[in-house]
């Protein structure tokens, strides 16, 4: 599917109502109109939507993914969640990943790439479309999926100033039953579930600083792989405002 966010604008640039066609211009204008309609239809896309969401630790990827999935029904594939599940299950991949995650370093491609490829290679992801969260985080990871013909329609990049991110990390709380993401200050959880909430082991200030520095070292190379499809989003706004912009982008894909 080709990516173009200007589908409505392209449709809107067709002949205004009341344009008069004469014998000489009519065929040419009709042909032009037809090609615009074809272009707009291709741009709007009829197949499943394929979205990558990226950003620094705690920039709000997971939070926005909850909302995107509710509206668009895409299959959410979070590299971090896949890895945490593997660690919890004690699989060989999880055992290999654990130390890297504990430090806030990138897990080797030999572990992550297969995991993500397998998650993308499911009937549900192919039929409903997918929302890839936290992958790729390096040029080599981008190349690995491109080699399989896996390309996003859009690459969303959430931008949040570093000084905000540490506060978001250390205040994050997770509901293991529903998967909901809270924050002690920004999105306080309901009182009746507070006791069951968990804190990620890498959500300390020290580890978050390393995760942030790993992000800064790699982000440019990854963005460069999708430069024709990148949409940068100011993530330093309310959750609803950030989502409104994302929703508009995905809607017009
Ligand atoms: P991963 O789990 O992907 O962690 P991350 O990238 O560090 O991102 P986070 O999950 O911390 O944050 P988020 O952006 O989802 O923010 P959230 O919505 O929760 O990866 C963990 C580790 O796994 C990595 O360090 C690495 O070791 C490994 N790994 C993962 N992918 C890998 C890969 N591809 N290759 C190699 N290794 C990989 O929000 C955070 C907090 O902010 C919450 O409390 C939330 O309530 C709050 N918040 C959200 N939005 C707002 C807002 N608008 N205003 C105020 N607060 C907000």
From TrEMBL:
Reactions the enzyme catalyzes: AMP + ATP = 2 ADP
Enzyme Commission number(s): 2.7.4.3
Domain of life: Eukaryota
Keyword Transferase applies: yes
Entry-linked SUPFAM superfamilies: Microbial and mitochondrial ADK, insert 'zinc finger' domain, P-loop containing nucleoside triphosphate hydrolases
GO molecular function, one term: AMP kinase activity
Keyword Ligase: no
Keyword terms: Kinase, Nucleotide-binding, Transferase
PROSITE patterns named in the record: ADENYLATE_KINASE (PS00113)
The family this protein is said to belong to: Belongs to the adenylate kinase family.
Name of protein: adenylate kinase
Classification lineage: Eukaryota, Viridiplantae, Chlorophyta, Mamiellophyceae, Mamiellales
């Amino acid at each position: 599917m080709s990516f173009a966010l200007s589908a409505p604008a392209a449709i809107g640039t067709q002949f205004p109502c009341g344009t008069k066609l004469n014998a000489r211009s009519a065929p040419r204008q009709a042909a032009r109109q037809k090609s615009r309609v074809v272009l707009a239809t291709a741009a709007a896309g009829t197949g499943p939507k394929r979205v990558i969401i990226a950003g620094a630790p705690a920039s709000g990827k997971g939070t926005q993914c909850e909302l995107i999935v509710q509206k668009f029904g895409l299959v959410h594939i979070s590299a971090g969640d896949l890895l945490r599940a593997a660690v919890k299950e004690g699989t060989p991949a999880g055992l290999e990943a654990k130390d890297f995650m504990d430090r806030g370093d990138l897990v080797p491609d030999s572990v992550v790439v297969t995991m993500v490829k397998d998650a993308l290679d499911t009937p549900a992801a192919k039929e409903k479309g997918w929302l890839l969260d936290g992958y790729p985080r390096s040029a080599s990871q981008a190349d690995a999926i491109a080699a399989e013909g896996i390309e996003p329609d859009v690459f969303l990049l959430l931008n949040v100033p570093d000084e905000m991110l540490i506060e978001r990390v250390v205040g994050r709380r997770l509901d293991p039953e529903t998967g909901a993401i809270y924050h002690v200050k920004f999105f306080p959880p309901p009182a009746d579930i507070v006791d069951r909430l968990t804190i990620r082991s890498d959500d300390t200030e020290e580890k978050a600083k390393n995760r942030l520095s790993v992000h800064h070292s790699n982000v440019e190379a990854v963005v460069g792989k999708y430069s024709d499809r990148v949409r940068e989003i100011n993530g330093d706004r309310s959750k609803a405002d950030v989502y409104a912009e994302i929703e508009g982008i995905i809607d017009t894909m």
